Amino acid sequence: MADNEHLVAGLHSRGSLPHLKREGGTYFVTFRQAGTLPKEVLLQFKQERAAILRQAEAAKRPLTWHEQEELFRWYSSQVDKHLDAGHGTCHLRDPELAAIVAGAIQFFEGQRYELRAWVVMPNHVHVVVWPKPPLTLSDILHSWKSYSAHEINHRLPAPVVPFWQGESYDHLIRDEDDLHRCCHYTLMNPVNAGLCARMEDWQWSSAQVAQPSPAAGSGTVPVCVSGTGGETPPQPAGGDACATA
């Protein structure tokens, strides 16, 4: 039996979400704090997902791009709507905690992966990322989630375990148009959620990082990473985080 935790290509499923992977692919991925979605929303998504998967399984084939698009549209229109409404405790409203997540995402940029766009929202994160082979999306997500959960729990009055929802949502990007749409969707999430007027006004995103520095007249404004000390993010084991499967 194949090891789904490290699958690099093909369709597989874990929990309530389907995952289509392709070696060398670029992904739009969402991971969120545990307890941020009502159970009825998760149930509805599971039912939508099951109906689409049944079509593919009956034909003994992987999901088509059209079926992927159906899932993406449903997820972005329904699930993100509830996330943006701020259900649950939004720990990432705290700038120090948001900085930990932003720093973890950027730490191995150019070494383990290339980032196309990213944003840290009050209770979830969107990233468009290309994993550098032989690393997989699962490897990268595990690193981000494990390290950030470990560091955040050191700063909370009482540890939150699990901090992140175990399963993440990922969408394999099809082409340049799909890439543009996913990047735009990611960067516009704070605007669409009513948190700021312009994408570049949101501190915890690649749109803000890429803005010219007024003091220098050129270059970029780096995200200030609080509390990491510049150390290499550890890879703690345990139940705080689980990579997407």
Strand order of the largest sheet: 4-5-3-6
Oligomer: single chain
Stretches where pLDDT is under 50 for at least 5 consecutive residues are 1-19, 213-245
Q: CATH-wise, what's the superfamily?
A: Transposase IS200-like
Number of helices: 6
Strand content: 5-15%
Please state the second-level CATH architecture: 2-Layer Sandwich
> First CA to last CA: what distance?
15 Å
Give the tally of structural domains.
1
Helix/strand/pairing class, anyone?
alpha+beta
> Shape, please?
globular
Write the element-wise H/E pattern from the N-terminal end onward. Answer: EEEHHHEEHEHH
**Main β-sheet: number of strands, strand sense, barrel status?**
4 strands, antiparallel
Count of strand segments: 6
Rounded mean pLDDT is 79
- CATH class, named Alpha Beta
- CATH fold title: Alpha-Beta Plaits
| Helix percentage range | 25-40%
Radius of gyration: 18 Å
Tell me what you see in this structure.
This protein is an alpha+beta fold. The chain has a single domain (10-209), classed as Alpha-Beta Plaits, CATH 3.30.70. It has helices at residues 39-58, 65-84, 95-107, 137-155, 176-192, 206-209; strands spanning 10-14, 17-21, 27-32, 113-120, 124-131, 169-172. Helix 1 (39-58) packs antiparallel against helix 2 (65-84) and helix 3 runs antiparallel to helix 4. The longest helix has 20 residues, at 39-58.
Quick take:
38% of the residues lie in helices and 15% in strands.
Chain-wise SSE layout:
Layout: E1 10-14, E2 17-21, E3 27-32, H1 39-58, H2 65-84, H3 95-107, E4 113-120, E5 124-131, H4 137-155, E6 169-172, H5 176-192, H6 206-209
Antiparallel strand pairs: 1-2, 3-5, 3-6, 4-5
Helix pairs in contact: 1-2, 3-4
